[in-house]
Design goal:
The structure is a single chain. About 40% of the residues lie in helices and about 15% in strands. It is α/β, with parallel strands linked by helices and about 375 residues long.
Amino acid sequence: MIPFNVPPCTGHELKYIAEAIDAHKICGDGAFTKKCNKWLEDRFGAHKVLLTTSGTTALDMASLLCELQPGDEVILPSFTFSSTANAFAIYGAKLVFVDIRPDTMNIDETKIEAAITDRTRVIVAMHYAGVACDMDAIMDIARRHGLLVIEDAAQAVMSSWKGRPLGTIGDVGCYSFHETKNYSMGEGGAVVVNNPAFVERAEILREKGTDRARFFRGQVDKYTWVDIGDSFLPSELNAAYLWAQLEMADEINENRLKSWNAYREAFQDLADAGRVELPTVPEGCVHNAHMFYLKCRDLSERTELIRFLKERDILAVFHYVPLHSAPAGLKYGRFCGEDVYTTRESDRLVRLPLYFGLTSEDQARVIAAVRDFYGV
């Protein structure tokens, strides 16, 4: 079976995990955590980066930094993972879903303004497949209406918008280092604090509501409980695994892009003939080859394609069920405007195997099977 995903492994992970164990420091904020934070800050020009236990908890921290009150509204796409919504619903916010763009599967920036009310506090820009939302338009809307912008950049590490790394443009950005992401620590993530006013509180939230970070910098003579917070800090063992990935970030990125480009070249004739649609990368976007997907004619054809590939020992998968139609989405949110593309496009999308180290032989099998399905 050719799997859909294989978690990245560079060969140095066990060495670094052993180093963390030998240093008798396996809880958070050891040497490897600090290395990862600094690498992310330096590489992306980020104001402050803090590793978290997951991309979900990074979003939870971002939500807490927004200081939402029950009944406040958050605008977000319906085509996203539940974590994007949970982070705000859990604190009593009302979710306002808007339609997506069919080309990128990202939030349609032209639909945001109509969804704004006097209770709106936050816009969430989720960068699907590592391809940027139109951040110029979104930031302009936010400035004019006095709103915060949270970037769900879970899939977008190493992607950019007009030269600016994704996750560093809004007030707060959130990365994921789950095993399905380009860079992994098993379970893990990072919160990217771009608004300087949020930095000190982000450190406090991450350290269970204490000013422990200030204590270790010598800014206070003892640390104590000063705010709400939680245990958002990951184990040093996870950070050691991630460090092996970040050391080879460019090599991993180039390897994935090579596979992504090979898929695109192989299926361009199918797209030209109108048999499938391929991913769109708008001008100004640099993507990270997080995934390669095809859009079939409809749900029935997608179902048949997935079945056809599985019979040939190839695992291809669809993606999100739109949140606004899910039981929790109906309970905690509402859809603003018309669902023109969200459901239709999500029903057509199928993701092909793509991971660091995908062999050319396995990729050729995937390509041949897809082309066989379409009779070419």
